[in-house]
């Protein structure tokens, strides 16, 4: 159980018994976590089987990536990483001596009107930004291979062909679902006529994370993203992929993009979902979908905290009955607030005070800050333990003596305790 914050050197005396009882459904028992892991394994196996894949929530898409890097790759490459409200373009030169030195990147925004507008406008925008980038770095006269990281659920049909299954993360661009995203991008680039860029591979961000890590860590077998979204990939034996339609030459393996954010869409996670999870889901554009993701990822974690705080304020647990209108607007409590609040040492509420003032609250106490921090701890710890249960499932399924897990994403990078919480839970499960 999370130890509630205990403000030192303050005049207030805080009783948490009622608060702990009220929030107890956010605390996962070891039995619940084991059940999550066991259930996830069954769902992954359903996705791998030919007979059950059609009805499976976790689709386990083969990526057609079978060879892992060995550190000897050389050359000049472009990379495009699209997976949220911003996308990144990179120019990488893998040389003989210090490959990581020659590196340039730039981040471009995806305006909301493009996220929700016609698909053609999205890919035209990406093509324009690519052209700006290659001209800025004076490589627009060269033909450089591009790796396209497209971090949305796709049915991969080859290294350069992937059809979008459904939009997530707030994207709703028309006329893209069911289409080959590589073809849409190439069409937008060719339409411009001012640059020559050829997509050589399309992959998910989890696959990209795994491959980047394997360049220096040959034992890497799992890629995990805990950021705006939640997903994982892992290296699977071809014999276990009943839907495999390629050859069985060496290496007899393929990276599987699980798309496990949809874990629980069939109700199998209802035993750990709370009223806050259900209220959050009911207000989303993709209601009833991506339920595992909605319990863990950065796009939703702050909203879960907001839901809890509104409930507590309504019943007088925080803010001493003062108006709490500032918390009623959905999305008002950002996930970054959780990281900032928990970044202060126990008993230090500097960041929490600043955040409450930013939200418009002026009449609050140290006790309020301590309780709000406690709620943040509960929600982030639950998210970390749910993510850790997923990683443990994949490690056990791979069943190799030594497995390296590559992890990336804004939640994992910026939450001050997320890594340690995941490691703590997986070590306790050993």
Account of the 3D structure:
With 430 residues, the protein is an alpha/beta fold. The chain contains 14 helices and twelve strands. The protein has helices at 17-22, 30-48, 112-115, 119-136, 181-192, 205-214, 275-282, 291-296, 298-314, 335-343, 350-359, 366-398, 410-414, 418-429, and strands at residues 61-62, 75-82, 86-94, 102-109, 144-150, 154-158, 161-164, 197-203, 220-226, 230-237, 253-257, 404-408. The strands form three sheets. The protein has a five-stranded mixed sheet with strand order 1-11-10-9-12, with helices on both faces. Strands 4-3-2-5-8 form a five-stranded mixed sheet. It has a two-stranded antiparallel sheet with strand order 6-7. β6 (154-158) and β7 form a beta hairpin. The longest helix has 33 residues, at 366-398. The relative contact order is 0.15.
């Amino acid at each position: 159980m999370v130890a509630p914050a205990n403000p030192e050197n303050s005049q207030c005396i805080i009783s948490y018994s009622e608060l702990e009882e009220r929030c107890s459904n956010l605390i996962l028992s070891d039995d619940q976590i084991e059940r999550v892991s066991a259930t996830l394994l069954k769902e992954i196996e359903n996705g791998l089987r030919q007979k059950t894949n059609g009805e499976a929530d976790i689709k386990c898409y083969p990526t057609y990536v079978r060879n892992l890097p060995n550190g000897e790759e050389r050359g000049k490459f472009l990379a495009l990483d699209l997976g949220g409200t911003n996308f990144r373009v990179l120019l990488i030169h893998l040389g003989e001596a210090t490959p990581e030195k020659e590196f340039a990147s730039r981040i471009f925004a995806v305006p909301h009107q493009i996220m929700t507008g016609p698909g053609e406008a999205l890919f035209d925008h990406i093509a324009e930004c690519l052209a700006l980038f290659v001209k800025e770095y004076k490589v627009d006269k060269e033909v450089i291979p591009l790796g396209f990281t497209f971090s949305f659920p796709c049915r991969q049909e080859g290294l350069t062909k992937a059809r979008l299954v459904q939009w997530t993360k707030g994207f709703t661009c028309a006329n893209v679902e069911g289409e080959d995203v590589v073809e849409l991008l190439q069409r937008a680039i060719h339409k411009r006529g001012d640059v020559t860029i050829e997509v050589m591979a399309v992959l998910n961000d989890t696959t990209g994370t795994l491959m980047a890590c394997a360049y220096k860590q040959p034992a890497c077998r799992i890629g995990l993203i805990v950021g705006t979204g939640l997903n994982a990939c892992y290296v699977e034996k071809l014999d276990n992929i009943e839907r495999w339609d390629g050859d069985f030459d060496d290496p007899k393996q393929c990276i599987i993009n699980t798309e496990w954010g949809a874990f629980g869409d069939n109700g199998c996670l209802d035993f750990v979902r709370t009223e806050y999870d259900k209220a959050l889901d009911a207000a989303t554009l993709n209601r009833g979908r991506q339920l595992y993701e909605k319990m863990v990822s950065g796009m939703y974690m702050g909203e879960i905290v907001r839901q809890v705080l509104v409930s507590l304020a309504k019943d007088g647990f925080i803010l001493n009955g003062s108006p709490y209108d500032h918390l009623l607007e959905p999305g008002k409590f950002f996930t970054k607030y959780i990281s900032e609040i928990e970044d202060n040492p126990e008993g230090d509420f500097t960041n929490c005070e600043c955040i409450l003032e930013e939200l418009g609250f002026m009449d609050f106490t140290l006790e309020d800050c301590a309780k709000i921090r406690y709620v943040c701890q509960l929600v982030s710890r639950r998210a970390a333990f749910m993510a850790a249960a997923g990683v443990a499932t994949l490690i056990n399924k791979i069943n190799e003596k030594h497995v390296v897990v590559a992890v990336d994403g804004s939640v994992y990078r910026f939450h001050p305790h997320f890594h340690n919480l995941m490691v703590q839970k997986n070590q306790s499960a050993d």
